[in-house]
Amino acid sequence: MSETNDLTPAEVHIWRAFPRGESVDFRAAENEDPALGNTWGAERTVRASVLRALLIKAPQEEGEIAALKIMGARITGVLDLKYATIDAAIRLSHCHFDGVPDLYGAQLRQLDLSKSVLPGLTSATLRVEGVLRMTDCRMRGPVQLGGAQISGALFMERAEFTAPDDSEPVLQLNQAAIGDDLWAPEMRAHGQVRLTGASVTGRINVQDAEFNKPDGTALDAQNLNVGAHVRARCVRAQGRVELRGSRITGRLDLLHAHLSHPGDTALRASSCVIGELWLRRGDRIEGALNLRRSQIEILTLEPEMLPDQVYLSNLTYTVLTPHEPAERRLPMLERDGERYEPHSYEQLTAAYRHVGDDDAARLVQLAKQRRRRTTLTWYGRLWGYVQDATVGYGFRPLRAAVWLLSLTAIGSIAYGLDHPRPIKAGEAPDFNSIFYTLDLLLPVINFGQEPAFAPDGWHQWLSYALIITGWTLATTIVAGVTRTVSRQ
User: How much is the pTM?
Assistant: First the structure.
């Protein structure tokens, strides 16, 4: 082609170095900022069409392994490798690209763009046999890696992704398959990052990363599949973090995380299957937390991080840490809107029983009955108040004993000062105010006192009150005990 017949000195240097896999370093000074590429002269400028011709032609030298290794060059035009199959490794680091490289459908051995500046990257369905490196890259336009297949790892440490507008995500990895780790600590994304349907065999590391899209979804990772851990410590997300339907075999580590999407959902991890979820030591979540229908083996959740809205319906977990008193855990069950979710109470009860804290489990069950009471009709609520006041819905059995002793004392004193007359004089047993009161209070026990004496006046009204109270107390005790036994 015509470009190869009229190469510049810089291009000749690259053409000769390629067959031997030698590096060509155009950097005039160490650590030069590639963002200033537009000021570089012709001695550091390379045409993308020349690089394409070189890679497609792939000149060989016997006994050598060809590779394209360029550092510190300005690449003009569009590097078009669409559908190309390239056997040589490609490393274009510390470079400045004028045009958006087109790698759509290409098959590469290895690609390294570390510390380069690009106006974007078109590389959907790209296949890389080794690793793809974008360490310290600055992307000024959308990076399209949807459907990419990377046999090795994807490195994006400290990479920065921006775009002129937010009409599309700044980084698309939807349906991508990564055979090793996705390594992106301290990454900066000013726009949406999309990972929907992606599969990562190893780990994901986005520690200290920033995702910024305050008016929408900052990280869209629905149906993400991760074979190991997701390390997201100290991550900062302005906008929704969407993980619905994801499967994370290991740990989703959100220690010291800052999640903010006021007025909307900040973290949605519903319908997920997660080994461990860590939400602790971070700032209070600004926006709703949605964990509905998820399955989590170990849930580490600090009450201080919980927002005003927490959706937990049908969430299942085996262990809840750190161990907190029931009084500190119950408020999160009351933040699921106005809905009464019995499953959430049962799940928290099971977690306390799992660690042997039966007292906390009973408190949760008592709170469940009180919450349920708010959904009943007026007479149902009235009966609920009676059960709560008398025996705490069966979870405070000692309260029944207190009521019994108190009423016995009142009746004993009242009847002891002025006992009722006997029905048949001379045939009645000696009057005992204590056992007479117990005869009135206890429906199924007969001490022979109550049928032998006939109260009148205020004695009669007191008797009626004790009989009604006794039956009510007995009924609530039976209902509470039955509920407790059936639950066991």
Answer: 0.81
